[in-house]
């Protein structure tokens, strides 16, 4: 299949080009970029007045369903990768995704949490995000390890890397009291294997003075000591009101040569399982939050008090919930979100959550999605909302900078572990034909906390491996061109 995108504003963060041009796709590859291209055998698509750029590469998506990936496709995403949590066993995760088919490219990290749960709590992993959520509230895997246990779960991670994991996902924030030496051991493993880590850091010292080590200090210290490439997940949600200090810590470390990268998303509320360690009432209080900051997704219940929160955590620790950490209606707190996104070289990543319905099912081939689906609005709207805020409304980013943050820089984080990623995030000749075409005046999010499965608007076309997944603003329900992105061990 050959497709000629004619006359659009082509934005290529790989070369720095931003101008009117044609883009010729030949199968899954960008064949040419230039003016007045001649390709009589190609299907021609008039994209004049639209912005053409490399599809968005989401390093932090917990979406493992066709339904969820379709929402992300309408948001401009061409690769949805679960790297913060990961799945285990990795071979099963890739096999099941391939069997079901995916609209978008997919990939997984080696799961630090699942490896520890297997060794410390005898919980066998099943490559499922649902079982992973159930494990989060289980205290048996959250303790420190003996030397024998440490060696055992490090060995499991090594095996997952050999099987193609895209680095190591570390949910340190879910086991915040563990011995800091264990985190350093994982960093050494990553450095020796030449793979990145992706960390949900533990609490900040301002929040919990008794924490073994400040979360942001820990990640930069480990990166500096071991030389590992270490990615700080959702700096907005883990830093909250302390974003100034955290970003200054990261900036200093990077200036001193540490390989620390960072991501953010444009929402003032996060989402996780209600049994997570940092939703324990005492820890909420340390953050200046209350039980009423927690909303149970399936029922819409806003938790009324500590007694009710403890009851839900005890009875249903895997229940997905929303945790409000910043008030987006408050100008000062909204500015903190903007600050995280604007931080130099911060990439955009969604932390997209699973989509489910009250009858318990999480998979559907219906489109539009059936009513009543629950998830976080960031699943459907992260990229469109970021473009609206940072390009259209504030002018903080040019279109070139937006594609650099959403496509180019995320791909470069993967270059060493997955050489195939070098063809992503740009529109040079030979690049992967993963392309998004946007209406610059119309692109916006529509998902809300009360109606979170409303697709974004303004993505006119989306090509994944050269196959149109979105045409003229409509999703093609027959398109399943997603391919695995896998690590290649040394």
From TrEMBL:
Residues 44-470 form the Amidohydrolase domain. InterPro entries: Amidohydro_3 (IPR013108), D-aminoacylase_insert_dom_sf (IPR023100), Metal-dep_hydrolase_composite (IPR011059), Metal_Hydrolase (IPR032466), Metallo-dep_Hydrolases_sf (IPR050378). This is Amidohydrolase family protein.
């Amino acid at each position: 299949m050959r497709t000629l995108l004619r006359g659009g504003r082509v934005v290529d963060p790989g070369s720095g080009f931003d101008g009117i041009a044609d883009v010729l796709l030949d199968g899954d590859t960008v064949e040419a970029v230039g003016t007045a291209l001649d390709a009589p055998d190609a299907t021609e698509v008039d994209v004049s007045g639209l912005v053409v750029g490399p599809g968005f590469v989401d390093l932090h998506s917990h979406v493992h369903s066709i339904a969820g990936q379709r929402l992300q496709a309408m948001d401009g995403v061409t690769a949805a990768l679960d790297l913060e949590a990961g799945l285990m066993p990795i071979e099963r995760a890739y096999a099941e995704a391939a069997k079901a088919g995916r609209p978008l490219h997919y990939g997984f990290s080696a799961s630090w949490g699942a490896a520890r749960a297997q060794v410390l709590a005898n919980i066998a992993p099943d490559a499922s995000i649902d079982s992973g959520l159930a494990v989060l509230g289980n205290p048996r895997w959250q303790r420190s390890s003996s030397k024998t246990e440490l060696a055992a779960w490090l060995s499991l991670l090594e095996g997952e890397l050999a099987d193609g994991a895209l680095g190591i996902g570390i949910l340190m924030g879910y086991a915040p009291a563990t011995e800091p030496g264990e985190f350093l051991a994982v960093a050494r493993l990553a450095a020796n294997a030449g793979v990145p880590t992706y960390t949900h850091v533990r609490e900040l010292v301002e929040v919990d003075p008794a924490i073994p080590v400040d979360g942001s200090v820990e990640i930069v210290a480990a990166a500096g000591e071991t030389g590992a490439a270490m990615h700080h997940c959702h700096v907005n949600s883990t830093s909250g009101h302390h974003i100034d200090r955290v970003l200054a810590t990261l900036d200093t470390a990077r200036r001193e040569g540490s390989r620390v990268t960072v991501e953010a998303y444009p929402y003032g509320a996060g989402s996780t399982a209600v049994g997570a360690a940092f939703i324990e009432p005492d820890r909420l209080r340390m953050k200046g939050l209350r039980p009423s900051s927690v909303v149970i997704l399936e029922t819409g219940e806003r938790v009324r008090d500590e007694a009710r929160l403890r009851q839900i955590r005890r009875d249903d620790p895997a229940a997905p919930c929303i945790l409000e950490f910043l008030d987006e209606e408050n100008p000062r707190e909204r500015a903190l979100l903007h600050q995280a996104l604007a931080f130099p070289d911060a990439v955009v990543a969604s932390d997209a959550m699973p989509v489910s319905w009250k009858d318990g099912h999480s998979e559907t081939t219906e489109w539009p999605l059936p009513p009543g689906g629950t998830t976080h609005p960031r699943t459907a709207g992260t990229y469109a909302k970021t473009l609206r805020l940072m390009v259209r409304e504030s002018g903080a980013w040019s279109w070139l900078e937006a594609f650099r943050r959403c496509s180019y820089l995320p791909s470069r984080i993967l270059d060493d572990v997955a050489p195939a990623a070098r063809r992503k995030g740009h529109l040079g000749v030979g690049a992967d034909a993963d392309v998004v075409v946007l209406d610059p005046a119309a692109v916006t999010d529509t998902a809300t906390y009360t109606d979170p499965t409303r697709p974004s608007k303004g993505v006119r076309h989306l090509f994944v491996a050269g196959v149109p997944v979105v045409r003229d603003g409509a999703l093609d329900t027959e398109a399943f061109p997603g391919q695995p992105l896998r690590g290649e061990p040394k």
